[in-house]
């Protein structure tokens, strides 16, 4: 296991959110309350959740800031993560709930969901930075995809995102290029 459970869970939530941003297809997939519900179903949060337009809008606004974490290297991530912790007034404490073992929450349960999303993501990136595993924070290698992911594979060899069919598509493209060369 590369990262402990709650770190991975928070990284997955950040990946999910960032990948709702319009990419090559230009489609934003976090615009409706139904989209928001889908996000919360996959990435459950404890504490107060309003599920209204204002909360959705605040969570949408966090995405660009999270996306920046995929544009930087380990050293570049440090000031971004520190600023997130500061802006969210992070105060780490150990908690135990819902069948999970002891882990850290860094915001109070009644702080705005967008703040909790930002701070929990920042805490996960703290772990990535401390473990010196930042090269696992990657953008899909497909030439027509800019989805992000975190590579949890043992040997760190994952090249494509999980959102589409990028690995297969690139293999088919490479095959076609080979074929095209052969027939010239
Ligand atoms: Zn928790
Ligand atoms: Zn991809």
Report the count of strand segments.
Answer: 4
| Amount of helix | 40-55%
Major sheet, described briefly? Answer: 2 strands, antiparallel
Q: Helix and strand string, N-terminal first?
A: HHHHEEHEEH
What is the count of DSSP helices, taking H or I runs of 4+ residues?
6
Q: What topology, given as strand order, has the largest sheet?
A: 1-2
DSSP strand (E) fraction? 5-15%
The first-to-last residue Cα distance is 48 Å
Radius of gyration: 18 Å
Bound compounds: zinc ion
Structure description:
- This protein has about 180 residues and is mainly alpha-helical.
- The protein is built from 6 helices and 4 strands, in the order ααααββαββα.
- The strands form 2 sheets. A two-stranded antiparallel ribbon has the order 1-2.
- Helix 1 (about 5-20) packs across helix 5 (about 115-130) and helix 3 (about 55-65) runs parallel beside helix 5.
- The radius of gyration is 18 Å and the shape is globular.
- The model has no long low-confidence stretch (mean pLDDT about 95).
- The structure holds zinc ion (2 copies).
Summarize the model shown.
The protein is mostly helical and 184 residues long.
Features:
184 residues, mainly alpha, 48% helix, binds zinc ion
Topology at a glance:
Blueprint: H1 5-18, H2 33-42, H3 53-67, H4 74-87, E1 93-95, E2 103-105, H5 113-130, E3 137-139, E4 148-150, H6 166-183
Antiparallel strand pairs: 1-2, 3-4
Helix pairs in contact: 1-5, 3-5, 4-5
The site of one zinc ion (ZN) has 9 residues, from loops.
């Amino acid at each position: 296991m590369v990262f402990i459970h709650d770190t991975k869970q928070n990284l997955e939530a950040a990946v999910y959110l960032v990948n709702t941003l319009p990419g090559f297809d230009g489609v934003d997939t976090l615009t409706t309350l139904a989209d928001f519900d889908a996000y919360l179903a996959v990435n459950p949060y404890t504490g107060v959740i309003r599920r209204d337009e204002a909360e959705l809008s605040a969570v949408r606004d966090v995405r660009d800031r999270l996306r920046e974490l995929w544009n930087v290297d380990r050293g570049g991530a440090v000031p971004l993560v520190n600023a997130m912790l500061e802006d969210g007034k992070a105060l780490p404490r150990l908690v135990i709930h819902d069948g999970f073992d002891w882990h850290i929450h860094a915001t109070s349960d009644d702080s705005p969901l967008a703040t909790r999303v930002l701070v929990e993501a920042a805490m996960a990136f703290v772990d990535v930075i401390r473990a010196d595993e930042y090269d696992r924070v990657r953008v899909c290698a497909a030439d027509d995809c800019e989805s992000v992911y975190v590579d949890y594979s043992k040997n760190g060899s994952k090249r494509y995102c999980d959102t589409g069919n990028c690995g297969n598509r690139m293999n088919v493209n490479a095959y076609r290029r080979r074929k095209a060369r052969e027939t010239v």
